[in-house]
Design brief:
2 copies of one chain form a homodimer. Chain A is an all-alpha fold. Chain A folds into 2 domains: 1-50, Arc Repressor Mutant, subunit A (Orthogonal Bundle), CATH 1.10.10; 53-198, Tetracycline Repressor, domain 2. Chain A has helices at 3-25, 32-39, 43-49, 53-72, 82-102, 104-112, 123-143, 149-171, 180-199. The N and C termini of chain A lie far apart (62 Å). Chain A binds a DNA duplex (30 and 30 nucleotides) through α2 and α3. Chains A, B: Residues 31-50 bind DNA.
DNA sequence: ATCGCACTTGAACGTTGTTCATGACCATGC
DNA sequence: GCATGGTCATGAACAACGTTCAAGTGCGAT
């Protein structure tokens, strides 16, 4: 096995074990020594595969994004009218809630993690995010056909942010700690309200 | 000076210095040794005034909530009609954005901080939050007079959560990193859309 | 078989938050 | 004024963290 192959294998093992640890204990559950032991390597070996633990977290987070994309299923087909567009937006919002509930700590890691050096996320990470935002842009374009693409992209991100806020604070055991069914209803009410309100510009 | 008075004085000094440190460096900027030096006491003294550093953070966060309440000005008077209610909701959302921009790290600490033991926030903290949510419930009740109080309270919290999401992800330098003026417009668009969409149940 | 180099190793380093034996200090009683 | 008792602040010490790097191991080439 070449050195490159070994490094790749180590990377895979590390990410898989890190994923398990984060799923079990959140971001604080990822500890260098424990990770090394789980992956069957020395602590120092982690730093041959990743620049630091934040790099490991980033890799895990990418897998989480992929998992979410898979959970969304294939992209929606043609959306007939504004009513169907609103339905699709509600469906996406509730799918987001379902995913957050199914993988609470992994999902939490997506947003709680901050790169230490204040740098922006790497391109491959941003690209994955963009693919997910496209899911929102599609029904939004049906709802507001006259919107320029830049404005549609922007509005889609704000729609996501709003839904994210409802889910994040709603599920947070230290903030609202709402039952899932209640959050589900709130998403339905507010996303539908936004869709209805956006329809007439 | 009695022991209680001294402890209170120490508490005040610690909170003031901790506030400065968090404002300068966020939650990671609050370090026990540095705080003790700034407050002119020994590290151990911190633990005579607070159970741990999280207690200090909680006290700072309460001050931040008070600061935000002050920034909102006195509660709105009677709200004439649904149009005025929508205006007020937009105003509150944009005031929230302004505050987050004016005190980014202190505001960040409000949401990034997690109590370690998984316990809920203390009552005095929840009470202060409730006073702020009441600001949203007021115009919302004008918009939807038929709503039961529990539903109004719930919807107000979700409205806040949505706006919080737009502000938090919009300002986050590692996520959207949008210019403030853009976020301001997005709040206007979406809050107005929600208000319009909510008007007809 | 021997040599040389690259890569893995894990003890060590610097920083955390938190604790607790120590000693200083002050109020009280004689 | 002095001895005494108890209370409280002190900061060195501890455990746990991420990260590093001198040292050693092992593999491939000669």
């Amino acid at each position: 096995m070449s050195a490159d192959e070994r490094r790749r294998a180590l990377r895979d093992t590390l990410v898989a074990e890190a994923e398990r640890m984060i799923a079990a204990g959140g971001l604080p559950g990822l500890r260098a020594r424990e990770l090394a032991q789980a992956a069957g390597c020395a602590v120092g070996a982690i730093y041959t595969a990743f620049p630091d633990l934040d790099g490991v977290v980033l890799a895990v987070n990418l897998r989480t994004l992929n998992l979410f994309e898979a959970a969304l299923g294939p992209p929606a087909g043609r959306i007939a009218d504004a009513g169907a567009a609103a339905d699709e937006l509600v469906r996406l919002g509730q799918a987001y809630l379902d995913f957050a509930r199914a993988h609470p700590l992994r999902w939490d890691a997506l947003f709680r993690h901050r790169a230490p050096s204040g740098q922006r996320a790497p391109d491959w990470y941003v690209a994955e995010q963009a693919r997910l935002f496209a899911r929102i842009e599609q029904p939004l374009a049906v709802l507001r056909p006259e919107l320029a693409e830049t404005e549609c992209r922007l509005l889609a991100r704000s729609l996501f942010s709003a839904t994210h806020g409802i889910v994040a604070l709603g599920l947070d055991p230290q903030r609202l700690a709402l039952p899932a069914a209640v959050i589900r209803d709130q998403i339905e009410i507010l996303v539908r309200a936004m869709a209805a309100g956006l329809r007439r510009p």
